[in-house]
């Protein structure tokens, strides 16, 4: 279980920091950043800052083949994984979700290729068949919401298997989970899939005024929203306490704010809501249906010439900046380093709320820093219409993943490693 070794404490043999090249980004105290890079569909900027004692956020950018068998299936994949209860689930997603997506896309391509033979044969019988064939080929040219949903499902099932296999040794794994925000750009189509309360915000140009307006493309799953509470109550009509208000915060069973996630197995499968899991995690009452869901909300968006960029970020950013504030900053700033500037802007706001200077906030070490702001991960992707029409294989592949390598205590170096 290499990912487990990379996520657990300072005693781990993986606990020594790894040197990061410029290609893989740079460090500045608890801040890591990759100011800019090219992807199949344009450019990106990425940054993350640690606040927790163990970094629970993970970030990922992949660009190139989206299938293990079809080299023409090219695109860009972005992932933001905001863990809770520990880093293990976010680490697992970072290591497995994209591979599952490529595998599911390959399987879908094989099925579609077989079906296309039958559809093509139908064209000899009817002109209508050719219409169906053309539409079918277009719809399945690259990616689909179904492929993404199956990749999420495979990732959830894989992590449940890890929890089951480690149950006697590390039962606390059952109480670790992660939000999961994914963006896939392929053939001019943007897919946004989300579990939890991370957020994807599009910047769209208004031609008449020149303004760039914020358009949120992700649906959030947090019990603070009335419609989310209503959804929970509708799916658990026999449980009047499925959501509980405590200290002015709505939580599922009084425990957790998010209502969809990867992991949190003790709230999904009753066989893990028992000893040897520590009593502080366990529910007193049994449950028959999963209390949380792992089914992502997926938005499919055809990219328009007026769509300039999209911001993917964990809720640590959105706790400090509004959608429009973030979009305004991206629009008015140079592309290079914009993710880092967004993270720093959020930190400035966090310091301001506590009536302290940003320079003093930066001196606060991880762990204590969590009292001022959350871990923050930001990835900005700029759309390039020319890149979308250029042969994808003429642009370099990118694989950049961050997070989860423990280091010595009492240092300001972030618990992250980026692979490029």
Automatic annotation (TrEMBL):
Residues 43-383 form the PPM-type phosphatase domain. Keywords: Hydrolase, Magnesium, Manganese, Metal-binding, Protein phosphatase. The keyword Metal-binding applies. Gene3D superfamilies: PPM-type phosphatase domain (3.60.40.10). It catalyses: O-phospho-L-seryl-[protein] + H2O = L-seryl-[protein] + phosphate; O-phospho-L-threonyl-[protein] + H2O = L-threonyl-[protein] + phosphate. Its EC number is 3.1.3.16. Coiled coil: none annotated. GO terms for molecular function: metal ion binding; protein serine/threonine phosphatase activity. Residues 1-20 are annotated as: Disordered. Pfam families: PP2C. Its cofactor is Mn(2+); Mg(2+). InterPro entries: PP2C (IPR015655), PP2C_BS (IPR000222), PPM-type-like_dom_sf (IPR036457), PPM-type_phosphatase-like_dom (IPR001932). The keyword Lipid metabolism does not apply. Belongs to the PP2C family. This is protein-serine/threonine phosphatase. It comes from Digitaria exilis.
